[in-house]
Structures are given as C-alpha cells and as structure tokens.
Amino acid sequence: MNKSIIFLICLFFATTSSAATKIPFYWDSFESSGITYEKAVMLIAVADQKGKFLQLDTGSSDSYVYGVDVGINLKFKTLSGSLQTHNFKAMPKMEADKTIGTLGTDYFKGQCLTVDFPNQILEVTNCDNISRINISWLDSFRFRTGHLMIKVSSGNNVFKNVILDTGASIFPLTLTKKHWLKVVSPEDAKNPPFKIKASSWGKEVEFKGALPVAPICIGSICESKAVYIQPNLDFEAAGVEGVVGNILFYDLYSIIFNFKNDTVGVFKSIIRKKA
What CA–CA distances, in Å, run from 1 to 5, 6, 7, 9, 11? Predict the structure, then answer.
C-alpha cells in the first residue's frame, strides 16, 4: 500500500479517536425564601422535544427519565449539530415538568468528561489528550457506591469520601451532621444561620448551614462559604461523608472527571467571549 495512503489512514484514526464531543448546557434558576439562585441547575436540551431538558448530575451513577414505567432512549444535540442517544431508566414516581430526566455518569463510562463552567460546555473525550500541564489532579478514587470521591479539608478536618456532584449546584459543601459539627462553631451548631429549601429528587428538603470555622479546601481552591447539613441519611449509612456542588468552581474553573482511571482534576478555564 502506498505510504501516503497509510499515513492518511493513520491520521484519520488518530483524529477520530481524539475528537471531542461538545455538548452545550444551560443554567436554570430557582427561588427559596425570596432569594433567587441563578445557577441552580445544569440543563441539556432534549432533541425533538422543544422546551424539554435533562439535568446533568454526576452524583447519579445512572440516567433516568421521569414519569414513565419503561426506560426509553433520548437524544440531545452537540455543538456541531450531531445527535447523541442514550438509554434512560424509568423513574415512574418522579414527576416531569420541563426537566424530564437526569443524565448520570453511566453515559460517560470509560471516557473523560470536562465540565467547562464559564463557557457552559461539556466536553467528552476518550481521555487521550488530557495531559494539560495546568490540571491540578485531586486526591480521588471510585467508591463502592460507584461515585468518584474527592478529598475536602477544613482546618484539621479531612473528609475523603465526598462526592463532586453537579446536581448540587448551589451548595459549596454538605456534610453528614456528625461531620458538619466538626467544622462550624458551637454557637452556629445550636442555631444554624442559613436555611435553603430545595428539591431533591422531587421532594422539598430544608438544608441548614453555617460558615465554617476554617475555609473549605479542595486541592488549592479554598473558600469560606457556608457548609450545610446533608439531610440524606442514606449517605451516612453508605459511608459517604458529604457532597460538593458547583458553586466553588463555576465562575473560573473546569473540572475533568476521568471515568477511565477514576480520577478528578481542576483547571482554570479560558473564558471565551460569547457572540
């Protein structure tokens, strides 16, 4: 075979294998106690269903469609206009409105997902081209629940079993109550000054919180934002210590979830001007 033809074939496969699928996402807001949270939910538009969306939720190991008895395939568009199809499990007891389902981490199995918060882009690759020198790789691993866990610290308190959950957008950190008591002052523990009512899988739940005595740190990112009590008692039973949401990242950073080797990294986004 002609050497130039062999070269072109190799180039084609190299380009194809490293090509990224880019999916736009949209922020949705919600209101609680008269306060509007602008970046509360990450939504992906469903193809052929105008005004219908999927919520991106890296805290969910599976993808679900609401209000149906049998799982179905749903399609969503990439930036290039091509369609992606995925099978969603049925969640019949969850009511659907404009958000008709959850896109979980099963869709990204064996791949790398980069969540570029400032530019509102999800980039899915086969992990071949993620050796960017500016990535700060976090202490992370896959837990027995199937979630990717990261390490979070506050002063001398270190929590290793913490889920990085895009479905918990507005919460910097929620901890099970016994761990929450370690990071807040005794005064705030008696009377938490922050309260947010939010929907969790179709149920309204009140989250109570307080400022930490020492900043919350994830790698080199440290913030003194409110920490909330995780109301899901199943987490503690499963050994999950807490959940980190998007608010610590979404103005400046991108997160890479490497589902091929079970690692998580963070880097500063190059913010592109919108047309």
Answer: 7, 7, 10, 11, 15
